[in-house]
Amino acid sequence: MPKPLVDVDSAPASAFCLTDALSPSTSAWHIHRRHQLLYAASGALHLEVAEAQWLLPPQRAAWIAAGIRHRVRTTQAATLCTVYLEPSRVPAAPQGDCHVFVLPALAREMLLYSTRWGPERSPRDRVAESFFSTLAHLLSEWSAEPRDWKLPRARTPELERAMAYTLAHLADPITLAGAAKAAGLSQRTLARRFEDEAHTSWRRFLHDARMLRAMELLAEDGARVTQTAYAVGFESLAAFTHAFTAFTSERPRDFLRRVARGTVPLPSATRRKRRG
């Protein structure tokens, strides 16, 4: 029987954990008054904030600062563990709106252990209070080396069209000329728009988009490295392996094995009230 809906912003405790079982969907844009430390136990999620869209791969963590407008999108089934922390409990919060990072083994175990204290817990539970205080103090150390697993968001319709065209043709031998035509701009103007508006080049945007999509595909059940390489525009498995390893610090096959053996079942998910 599903648990009742919970409004996480009305929970009395200043720190608690919530688990989610997500199906393919996109949440409304929303804001929480607490910081969030997210851990993708399985599946991959997209975290979108004003300036960027991040990929949270399986068995990796993310930080979203309190008061930051964001939404969560997933194209596959995923399980998520989120610790909510009042800003006053975090002595040295990570800088910026959002970060994605690799957790040490101790941190993963602490996040999984925290699932016993949900939003309904008593604020006077001394063990829980001590546990979340320790977790909050360790957070700055865990997030000290964020990974740049993100794509910029467009601020103008022309760049949005160019990005959408690029993302829709990751498997194809796509060119800047094709993206410029989709945007209704010259190649030179589009290249300048990417530099000025997105602070990257179109070529880098394409490369990072292919790597992020590869990570997402490899997180799916039954994924295969060779098919994934073709699906993101690589004709050579060796070239794909080299690019993926440089981007993620893991070979594709190691990524696949880690995801397959590292899935840990979470307690029954608590349904939250969605914003918007």
Describe the model.
- α3 crosses α4 and α4 packs across α5.
- This protein is 38% helix and 18% strand.
- The model has no long low-confidence stretch (mean pLDDT 92).
- The longest helix has 17 residues, at 126-142.
- It has helices at 105-113, 126-142, 157-168, 176-183, 187-198, 202-218, 225-231, 237-248, 252-262; strands at 15-22, 25-26, 35-42, 45-48, 52-56, 61-64, 71-74, 78-85, 98-101, 150-152.
- It has 2 domains: 8-142, Jelly Rolls; 153-261, Arc Repressor Mutant, subunit A (Orthogonal Bundle), CATH 1.10.10.
- The chain has 276 residues and is an alpha+beta fold.
- It is globular and about 60 Å long.
- The protein is built from 9 helices and 10 strands.
- Strands 1-8-3-6-9 form a 5-stranded antiparallel beta sheet, with helices on one face.
Number of helices: 9
The ordered string of helix (H) and strand (E) elements is EEEEEEEEEHHEHHHHHHH
- How much helix, percentage-wise, in residues? 25-40%
Strand order of the largest sheet: 1-8-3-6-9
Quick one: biggest sheet?
A: 5 strands, antiparallel
The CA-CA distance between the termini, in Å, is: 26 Å
Mean pLDDT: 92
Query: What would you give as the CATH superfamily of the largest domain?
Result: Jelly Rolls
Low-confidence segments, given as residue ranges, are none
By DSSP, the count of extended strands is: 10
Helix/strand structural class: alpha+beta
Please tell me the CATH architecture of the largest domain by its name. Answer: Sandwich
Count of separate structural domains: 2
